[in-house]
Amino acid sequence: VLKREVEKYQAAINERRAYGEMNHPDSTAIDVGRICLNITELHWEGKTLVGQMEIPITEAFRRTGAITCLADQAAHFLLSGLKLGVSSRGIGNVEQKYGTTIVTDYELICWDLVSQPSTPGAWIGETPESLQPYVESEQKDRSKLLTDLSKFTDWLE
Predict the structure, then answer these.
(1) Nearest 5 degrees, angle CA 32-CA 115-CA 6?
(2) What are the tens digits of pLDDT across the range 17-62?
(3) Measured in Å, how far apart are the chain's first and last C-alpha atoms?
């Protein structure tokens, strides 16, 4: 579901309208008065979605450090060393199947800055290297599976 939505979201990225807000508002509409980021790139590394964003700070913040909008506030937090996360905002339904909650008709709206992302490891990093501990590769998954299966082969012999 997320792969499909990320593909659709590429149009917003290409048109420079992949905005996000501070925190998750209750609305599905993006309030232009609350924009604090613009997603500039998204790609998959194995099963992990990573991307880049820009924070559209004002000239006042650039010159004097004056905070006049939420983008300035976000930049101030990050420059001060505070840890912020990114979380997707969307609408859809979930249903219970076989004891598992499954997302059915999800529609991605945007990504927002949050203090506690619901996805583990969805923190803003300064460099790709700082994000490596959070990237889950398909190769790692396969080796984990093989290790887990080897536990069971001992009693089969």
Answers:
(1) 60
(2) 999 999 988 899 999 999 999 999 999 988 888 899 999 999 999 9
(3) 41
